[in-house]
Amino acid sequence: MNHTEQRKRLRAVLAGSKCLSPASVYDPLSARVAETVGYELGMLAGSVASSTTLAAPDLIVLTLTEFADQIRRIMRASRLSLIVDADHGYGNALNVMRTIEELEHAGVSAMSIEDTALPARYGQAEGTDELISTGEMTGKLRAAVAARRDASLVIAGRTAALKVEGTEGAVARAKAYAATGVDAIFIVGLETLEQIEAIYAAVKLPIIVGTAPPSLKREDMAARGARILLQGHQPVAAAVKALHETYAHLYSGGAPADLKSRVASPQEMERLVAGETYRKWQREYLR
Predict the structure, then answer these.
(1) What is the pTM of this model?
(2) Domain parsing of the chain, residue ranges
(3) pLDDT tens, 138-160?
(4) Rounded distance between C-alpha atoms, residue 158 and residue 84, angstroms
(5) 119 half-sphere exposure, CB direction, 13 A CA radius
(6) What's the CA gap between 233 and 25, in Å, rounded?
(7) Which residues of the chain have pLDDT under 50?
(8) Which residues, 6 or more positions from 34, have their beta carbon under 8 angstroms from its beta carbon?
(9) CATH code reported for the domain at 4-116+126-238
């Protein structure tokens, strides 16, 4: 399937003046639901893929194959422009090239490669980040750009330097990453408008923000180059809570009819799974 249309749609967002937030999705059905609300952008984070595919924490135990397979399922059922967090590219610069190849073929519109040293080394303090060298990271990003086949695919260099090296270090890394030919800079650990302003002034590339304090207004970030703002992964947590409450109700002897106002109607489910389309195919092709 050709996904250039979705990629160009995302590029238009990055070239615009507004800051938008994608829907956090995790499977084909959640992507379909997001589309019915009106979302055109989706996000599949590594942490979300790990929790929903393996029921495991975000400790780099999900494989590239598992990640790519889930993306293919989502993109088969969806027209979202899907942004994915490809972690550290699943290894060194050569692994990054393989990651680009697999995820581009799977249908993503954008992917980020990060400079965090992953997986965490033995003895590393919990909750802390360590960064790979700027040289190693720029090698990864140059390899990523070289591996891309569809020029409309967006590649973002992601940095956690704000949390580790401060604003000065983040600016230096962003400049080095921008020089590799990436299309955007993805920053995590943002705390102030001055930080994003300094990075944008240095690179003049669209900024993707991996969550921000509530005190930072979206329009103020947009004026400083932010085009994508992630908002966390509440839909996944909401689905887990709904599942738990529904299972608990039924397990304790509650009547299914009592759940009517809290569940999707049969008609809604039918639309989400394209039931009418499949019945049409049955009528036309089954003999």
Answers:
(1) 0.95
(2) 4-116+126-238
(3) 999 999 999 999 999 999 999 99
(4) 12
(5) 10
(6) 8
(7) none
(8) 23, 25, 42, 80, 235
(9) 3.20.20.60
